[in-house]
Amino acid sequence: MSDERAERIADFIEPLRVKPGSRVHLGRDFDPRFKAGLKKRDGVELLRTGVSLLAEYQDRLAAQDTYGVLLCLQAIDAGGKDGTIRHVMSGVNPQGVKVSSFKVPSAEELDHDYLWRYACRLPTRGEIAIFNRSHYEEVLVVRVHPENLARQRLPEESSGPDVWDRRYREINRWERYLTDNGFKVLKIFLNLSEEEQRARFLKRIDRPEKNWKFSAADVLERRRWDDYQDAFSAMLSATSTKWAPWYVVPADRKWFARICAAAVLVHTLMDIDPQYPDVGDEARQALLATRRDLEREAPAGAPADPYSESASRRHGKKKHGKKKHRKHKRG
Ligand code: ATP
Ligand code: MG
């Protein structure tokens, strides 16, 4: 991979990264309509490039089997989390990716510490895990609606007003622990404007095939817009760290949000730079010996190696190409 390309991607995502320690005011610092001077038609090609780079790096990540990647996606309702996952991961081998969506916690989940259910869905080595909503709900919806905190039945000494600052600290340390153990954590916040959310809700109501996506609860949540913006700003200020940074992705234009999300993920994978394992000389010699044995097993008339270039030129295309798939016709 060219360093120049890696540099271009790093430059592209730099304005989206929340500088660790900076104080974020979402409405003032980030524009949901920003598109870096790009046009939608440039976007198609860029996303295609991003998707194919992701496929290549994910294959190497799985082969190396040393690092895992956790991508946390947060957004307000209709922010585009589902579409982002669908498009960005479209070229990736499904065996190497695990997507988990987090909803209102179940009774069993509430019976544990608040990070438990997220820990259960972490990536294994070689895997990319995507959290569609994440442990950050614990300082967002739980903060905006404190009745959620009451349901968690914390002891009195743990549920005072310092609970949010404590959770930020605990989350930062947990992510540090994961990073130190080979699991890279990156976090994307899809930043949607209030007006674009209104337009998307209207679309969900008008189009029958989108009705299932609409929930009256979403409109109730919309009334708490300012409280959510405050909770987002506080979260971004407290939990963007050197080891697990937040990226605020402008989300009013879906095509641009998808390019940004792909770029952020590719950047992380490039940073890991996973390599296909080298099996070593001894194992290589053993492979070559097995190869010779397999060649000797070729039936009379068959090429020793049907996939070798000269053999497929001589035999393969003519002989095997015309062969019927089914040997015996049914009577
Ligand atoms: P969609 O885009 O399909 O609407 P969604 O992520 O909004 O996807 P929903 O089933 O609509 O999924 O909503 C899940 C709900 O669960 C959200 O309102 C979210 O705030 C809530 N939720 C997630 N985590 C928690 C939590 N820890 N405590 C309370 N509520 C939570
Ligand atoms: Mg929803």
Question: Please, could you describe this protein's structure?
Answer:
The chain has 2 domains: 3-272, P-loop containing nucleotide triphosphate hydrolases (Rossmann fold, 3-Layer(aba) Sandwich); 282-330, no CATH class. It contains 15 helices and 5 strands. It has helices at residues 3-13, 26-29, 40-64, 81-88, 107-110, 116-119, 141-144, 147-151, 163-180, 194-206, 216-222, 225-239, 254-272, 281-296, 309-319; strands at 68-75, 97-101, 128-132, 183-191, 246-250. The protein has a 5-stranded parallel beta sheet, sandwiched between helices. Helix 1 (3-13) crosses helix 13, helix 3 packs parallel to helix 13 and helix 4 (81-88) crosses helix 13 (254-272). The longest helix has 25 residues, at 40-64. The relative contact order is 0.17. The structure holds adenosine-5'-triphosphate (ATP) and magnesium ion. Magnesium ion binds next to loops.
The largest sheet, given as strand count, sense and whether it forms a barrel, is: 5 strands, parallel
Structural class: alpha/beta
CATH C-level name of the largest domain: Alpha Beta
Order of helices and strands: HHHEHEHHEHHHEHHHEHHH
In DSSP terms (H or I, runs of 4 or more residues), the helix count works out at 15
**In the residues, how many domains can be counted?**
2
Keywords:
binds magnesium ion; Rossmann fold; globular; 331 residues; binds adenosine-5'-triphosphate; alpha/beta
